[in-house]
């Protein structure tokens, strides 16, 4: 297979797949078709900068498989974006959608850029150029985009508008995660964080631990981490540690979540929130707590961090926060640490994105209560199926979750056959 699929994040995805394929006893000759993406698109995005110069940014879109329906996945604007990372994220999205029972394959896209160094006009120009270059390869029944790191509702509105201008009509269903005023759905913004908190509640129930009085540490206080913190605090959980890329705070007595959220809204980051609670970000993950929520980037829990974890529940709100080497450590600590794997833990976002897509196609919209009720129903179903497989086969939670997703895609490919 071509070596364009390289890098530590892709190797993580490959290693995880191999472990699950071994468990499922998938024949060697069938594995490459399941693992490697159907399409990998690389584009150049030239834009005019405010200083009059022209800059060219590299963009990507990977569509893993279209066996179950159109592909679905976010688009991130970040300096670290490369084809290997995007491919790994698309692969994980495939297993996530299959686990949640959604009629999608996985996709992911991105641009190698620091969006915080762009003006609003430059960001709009880059967003529109990226979608313009992608128009031949995407569509409501081909590939549906969504927000990710470095993008938001506004970027999705620019994507949708650009695609619509080329079609000569409004096509709301080309992206999800849009503003409600532009065909978005109630509940989408908070869906991933609410889903994380809901699954933590299910894990607490399984462990016979009360939410009230439990403690949580959240690494990453963006959209996912902040809404998870709000919902956990509402359930009575004490948030004792938080961080983002600018600052880290820890207080055993608990932090004021409402004030943290208000500070984020006013300043765009956690920097400057407090001087008394400042803490070493490198040590936050290993502090004693009941619930640890990595909600930032990939590979933050490695073979050095895993032995030092002091949590009872590890809720992977980020994609790929735990390396395979760390998984080997967590395997030996299965009785100590209850893992909610990423493809289950953060699936609330794609589930409500699916609801948004369905509503856009039908032009019939639901209220927030209906959205959240349906979300919890699908999360409960996925959680129960994962736990049933854990209990039946005595396998780690990640293997159980991925096995359900991989098995569904494998069976669908086998039934459809290989054309021509």
From TrEMBL:
GO molecular function, one term: oxidoreductase activity
InterPro entries in the record: Aminoacid_DH-like_N_sf (IPR046346), Glu/Leu/Phe/Val/Trp_DH (IPR006095), Glu/Leu/Phe/Val/Trp_DH_C (IPR006096), Glu/Leu/Phe/Val/Trp_DH_dimer (IPR006097), Glu/Leu/Phe/Val_DH_AS (IPR033524), Glu_DH (IPR014362), NAD(P)-bd_dom_sf (IPR036291), NAD_bind_Glu_DH (IPR033922)
UniProt keyword annotation of Iron present: no
Keyword Heme: no
Glutamate/phenylalanine/leucine/valine/L-tryptophan dehydrogenase C-terminal domain location: 185-417
Superkingdom of the source species: Bacteria
CDD domains referenced in this protein's UniProt entry, alphabetically: NAD_bind_1_Glu_DH (cd01076)
UniProt keyword terms in alphabetical order: Oxidoreductase
Family listed: Belongs to the Glu/Leu/Phe/Val dehydrogenases family.
Record's protein name: Glutamate dehydrogenase
Organism of origin: Rhizobium alvei
